């Protein structure tokens, strides 16, 4: 059916869905049949032996609506024939010209085509159809336009010229790849009808097929590699990498390789460079080969930064191979994915390891419920390296003896807390204790739909006004899933208990036989077990906050999508401090008013449970401390030092809480390493003149919680420690200033909330001017990814594409589809971390004379809508011609430097009466940011046009006839613009698009934005 007439729609059933359509013959089933009452006696006389054989169930082919189905009884066996209705009604003499055997469809189709100009529906062009359900609307009908009216003619012409089929294909491809949709979606008849209905300018043949889109994908991917290569080569920072292997459920293996860097305009980028298929084992050598090939393909051998990887052993081997090939220190360049090892610490806390020696662990940690702070710090600091031999847990205290003797009996479904702590007992408690029960409840809900409905019904009964939520299951590969499961269970605790009551009541009503007792009833948690769940959830809560902070949000415009590397060190310190307090039975929580307060963990708990929970905490601390000892790379400390709001002060505050950090001379070691890197690589490097473009953004995040938590913890430190820290600060402040590094470190930290969240903004706005060489070193360390979360996000996206229904999709197509959204259009339309967002305005950076030798005279950038530039005044000429330009100085400003002159900006500020610019805009201007005060997009060609118009006005001033007031109006500028634009289109035919200053092919008026 290719029409939607109201009469037909009312009398015929809806067409079958495309999934049920089996062939072309049934796809265009006839909506009418010939009138068989036309067969009168005289008609039958012309066809002796013929009888009517009309059967709608068998007449499914489209041409049955144009002919009669008759049976020829003269032959054996009898034949079914098709008789053309039109020829029959015209009483054509030669019946052989319009009578065909029904099985010979080719003759019937040729007859209809030649004699009656009727073609199959599949070959018909979709024409305009009236009615609300039309597949395509004609522009004339939709607009009620008159083609003889010149105004309507102009309107129709403009509408047709504004639609570009090539752009439509690119948008379709972008939509399909971004949402991981199948390419053959565009072949759907319903999808094509939707496009044709929504766009009357679109013709059906302009809708691409799936093969066309795949070819377009290949072309766009190859086109994007060039701009990406240029962007990487011109990056301000080193190129840092994250990579990891992954296997889909259809056993398709890939290696995701991401690059992290800051470009020349201080935008943070994350680009998926490659997603090669892994056809061999995921060995370190195989991973290294693919990564090395990608690095060489983009020419990054001399720009390699740091690698942020998880703790898999094949990554260790890969780093050894890469270090040997590209000649770098593998230990220095290896950064450990923070959320990954935080999750390993939690896993060690919750599930331990077969290698854990509980006797040794217990002997060395002691069994005091309450210890002095000095003793606790000493034991915590020396725990792993100085193992003792005395098992203090062997002789409980008198209070604990009494508590153990008077403990109530446990129910048959409750797993008792072990009295003797060993691997076997602890493993049993983990499987059948409170968290084992929660895990089993989740498995039961997933496997049994009736139990799941019971859970939903229990939520509706216990909390009618609250939303019904699904169960959250803990998974070993999902970061902090144990905390998520505990949080959801505590939130729906009443519903869980009610669900188990419903199940038990149903079992009792059905006879209550023990052999029929539902297995899930064994997972009923006692009051004490719920206390354990709540306590462990409180212990795990800071790990969740830290993981979310260090893995980033993955959203463009939100700082780094992989987390801020400067937060890495203090987050680990915060978690160590958290566990060291927790083992004493105290944690620091934040209340609803964001005020930190101490909370006691073990209140109302028996001695056995306290002892076991301490073992949990100590196992987590042991694993976390093991990884803490592996953070030997200078980069971890350098990122904190080069944060303008932190510097050494933050590290001193952290280390001041544990004397072992101070006596190990960590600061002296790291200071020496920083100085060595500075002198070897950055101190004497050639640098570019600072060019700042965007103001710092202000935002609040989980970092606020971490800083408040650390600040509260510092308030608990002994006064003598604070005095030592104060003395160290005074001593460090008196260091002689020798170079940029010494000068930067000698200054106190910056107190600015905007730069606290975005330290790179300070180096862009301030540091690049005051410390030009040091700014490169700072950015190199601050742009390191603190996690490999982006690679995990790539794999999640890839998993949504490689579904069971698309298992035959070739791997290189998968790779191109995943890479293209993050590579296409670089640098104008790729996915910058802090690039153009819906809340940003396009502006132009106009560079001063000193920078034009290294940069283009002007370049496109973006600013936020609340940037201070929009509060500045509009100079006279732009104001009079109604192109409201505003200006903001962003570079160096010095009256002693002639290279800071900026003639373009001077001309744009000339006075309409005198022809002179104000003194402040005549010389030593520096680099300037230009935007439109109305916050519309400013194109480079428009800025050039206004500048040259001001130059033209200056020429008229030079003629000695005074101010050319006739030029100070919009109409005069529009007339001049038409001539100037026409001339430039002949001379300058760039290919970079509308933001290329030399591409004037499609430039429109500045008033059309």
From TrEMBL:
<dbReference type="InterPro" id="IPR052035">
    <property type="entry name" value="ZnF_BED_domain_contain"/>
</dbReference>
<keyword id="KW-0479">Metal-binding</keyword>
<keyword id="KW-0539">Nucleus</keyword>
<protein>
    <submittedName>
        <fullName>Putative AC transposase</fullName>
    </submittedName>
</protein>
<feature type="region of interest" description="Disordered">
    <location>
        <begin position="1"/>
        <end position="28"/>
    </location>
</feature>
<dbReference type="Pfam" id="PF05699">
    <property type="entry name" value="Dimer_Tnp_hAT"/>
</dbReference>
<dbReference type="GO" id="GO:0046983">
    <property type="term" value="F:protein dimerization activity"/>
</dbReference>
<dbReference type="GO" id="GO:0005634">
    <property type="term" value="C:nucleus"/>
</dbReference>
<dbReference type="GO" id="GO:0008270">
    <property type="term" value="F:zinc ion binding"/>
</dbReference>
<dbReference type="InterPro" id="IPR008906">
    <property type="entry name" value="HATC_C_dom"/>
</dbReference>
<keyword id="KW-0862">Zinc</keyword>
<feature type="region of interest" description="Disordered">
    <location>
        <begin position="987"/>
        <end position="1009"/>
    </location>
</feature>
<keyword id="KW-0863">Zinc-finger</keyword>
<feature type="domain" description="HAT C-terminal dimerisation">
    <location>
        <begin position="740"/>
        <end position="820"/>
    </location>
</feature>
């Amino acid at each position: 059916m290719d029409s939607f007439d109201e009469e037909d729609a009312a009398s015929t059933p809806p067409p079958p869905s495309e999934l049920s359509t089996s062939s072309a013959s049934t796809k265009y089933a006839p909506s009418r049949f010939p009138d068989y009452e036309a067969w009168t006696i005289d008609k039958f006389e012309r066809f002796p032996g013929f009888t009517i054989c009309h059967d709608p169930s068998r007449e499914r082919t489209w041409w049955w609506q144009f002919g009669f189905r008759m049976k020829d009884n003269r032959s054996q066996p009898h034949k079914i024939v098709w008789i053309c209705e039109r020829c029959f009604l015209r009483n054509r003499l030669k019946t052989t010209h319009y009578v065909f055997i029904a099985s010979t469809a080719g003759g019937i189709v040729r007859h209809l085509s030649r004699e009656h100009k009727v073609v199959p529906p599949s070959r018909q062009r979709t024409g305009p159809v009236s009615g609300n359900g039309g597949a395509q609307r004609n522009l004339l009908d939709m607009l009620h336009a008159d083609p003889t009216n010149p105004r309507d003619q102009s309107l129709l012409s403009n509408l047709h010229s504004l639609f570009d089929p090539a752009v439509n294909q690119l948008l379709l491809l972008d939509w399909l790849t971004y949402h991981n949709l199948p390419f053959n979606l565009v072949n759907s008849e319903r999808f094509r009808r939707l496009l044709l209905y929504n766009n009357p300018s679109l013709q059906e043949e302009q809708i691409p097929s799936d093969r066309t889109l795949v070819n377009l994908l290949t072309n766009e991917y190859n086109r994007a590699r060039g701009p990406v290569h240029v962007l990487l080569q011109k990056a301000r920072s080193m190129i840092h990498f994250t990579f990891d292997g992954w296997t889909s459920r259809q056993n398709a293996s890939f290696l995701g390789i991401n690059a992290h860097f800051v470009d020349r305009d201080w935008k943070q980028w994350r680009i998926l460079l490659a997603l090669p298929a892994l056809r061999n084992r995921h060995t370190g050598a195989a991973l290294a080969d693919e990564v090395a090939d990608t690095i060489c393909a983009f020419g990054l051998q001399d720009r390699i930064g740091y690698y942020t990887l998880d703790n898999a052993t094949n990554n260790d081997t890969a780093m050894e191979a890469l270090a040997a090939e590209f000649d770098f220190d593998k230990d220095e360049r290896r950064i450990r994915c923070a959320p990954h090892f935080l999750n390993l610490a939690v896993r060690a806390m919750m599930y331990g390891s077969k290698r854990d020696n509980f006797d040794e662990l217990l002997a060395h940690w002691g069994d005091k419920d309450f210890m002095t702070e000095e003793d606790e710090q000493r034991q915590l600091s020396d725990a792993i390296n100085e193992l003792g031999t005395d098992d203090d847990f062997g002789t409980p205290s008198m209070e604990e003896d009494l508590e153990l003797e008077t403990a109530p009996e446990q129910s048959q479904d409750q797993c008792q807390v072990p009295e003797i702590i060993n691997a076997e007992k602890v493993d049993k408690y983990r499987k059948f204790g409170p968290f084992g029960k929660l895990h089993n409840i989740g498995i039961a809900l997933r496997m049994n739909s009736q139990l799941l409905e019971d859970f939903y019904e229990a939520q509706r009964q216990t909390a009618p006004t609250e939303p019904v939520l699904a169960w959250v299951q803990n998974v070993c590969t999902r970061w902090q899933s144990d905390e998520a499961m505990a949080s959801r269970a505590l939130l729906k605790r009443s519903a869980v208990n009610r669900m188990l009551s419903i199940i038990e009541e149903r079992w009792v009503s059905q006879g209550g036989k023990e052999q029929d007792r539902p297995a899930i009833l064994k997972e009923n948690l006692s009051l004490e077990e719920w206390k354990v769940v709540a306590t462990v959830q409180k212990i795990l809560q800071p790990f969740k906050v830290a993981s979310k902070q260090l893995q980033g949000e993955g959203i463009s415009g939100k700082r780094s999508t992989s987390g801020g590397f400067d937060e890495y060190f203090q987050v680990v310190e915060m978690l160590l401090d958290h566990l060291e307090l927790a083992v004493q039975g105290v944690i620091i929580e934040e209340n609803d008013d964001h005020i930190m307060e101490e909370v006691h963990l073990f209140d109302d708990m028996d001695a056995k449970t306290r002892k076991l929970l301490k073992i949990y905490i100590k196992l987590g601390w042991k694993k976390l401390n093991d990884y803490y000892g592996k953070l030997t790379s200078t980069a971890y400390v350098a990122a904190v030092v080069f944060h303008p709001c932190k510097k050494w002060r933050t590290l001193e505050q952290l280390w001041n809480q544990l004397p072992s950090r101070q006596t190990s001379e960590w600061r002296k070691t790291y200071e020496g390493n920083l100085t060595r890197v500075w002198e070897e690589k950055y101190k004497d490097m050639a640098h570019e003149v600072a060019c700042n473009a965007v103001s710092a953004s202000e935002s609040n995040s989980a970092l606020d919680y971490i800083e408040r938590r650390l600040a509260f913890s510092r308030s608990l430190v002994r006064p003598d420690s604070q005095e030592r820290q104060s003395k160290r600060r005074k001593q460090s402040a008196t260091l002689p200033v020798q170079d940029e590094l010494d000068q930067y470190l000698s200054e106190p930290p910056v107190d600015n909330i905007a730069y606290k969240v975005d330290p790179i903004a300070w180096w862009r706005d301030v540091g690049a001017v005051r410390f030009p060489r040091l700014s490169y070193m700072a950015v190199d360390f601050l742009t390191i990814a603190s996690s490999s979360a982006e690679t995990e996000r790539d794999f999640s996206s890839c998993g949504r594409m490689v579904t069971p229904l698309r298992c035959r999709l070739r791997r290189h197509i998968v790779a191109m589809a995943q890479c293209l959204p993050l590579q296409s259009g670089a640098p104008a339309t790729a996915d910058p971390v802090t690039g153009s967002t819906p809340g940003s305005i396009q502006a132009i950076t106009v560079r001063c004379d000193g920078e034009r030798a290294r940069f283009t005279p002007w370049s496109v950038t973006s600013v936020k809508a609340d940037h201070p530039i929009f509060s500045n005044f509009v100079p006279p000429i732009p104001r009079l011609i109604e192109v409201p330009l505003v200006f903001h100085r962003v570079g160096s400003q010095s009256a002693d430097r002639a290279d800071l002159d900026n003639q373009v900006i001077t001309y744009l500020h000339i006075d309409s009466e005198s022809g002179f610019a104000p003194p402040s805009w005549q010389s030593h201007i520096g680099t300037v940011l230009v935007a439109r005060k109305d916050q519309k997009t400013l194109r480079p060609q428009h800025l050039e046009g206004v500048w040259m118009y001001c130059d033209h006005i200056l020429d008229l001033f030079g003629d000695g006839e005074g101010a050319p007031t006739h030029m100070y109006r919009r109409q005069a500028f529009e007339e001049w613009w038409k001539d100037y634009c026409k001339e430039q289109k002949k001379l300058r035919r760039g290919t970079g698009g509308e933001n290329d200053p030399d591409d004037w092919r499609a430039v429109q008026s500045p008033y059309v934005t």
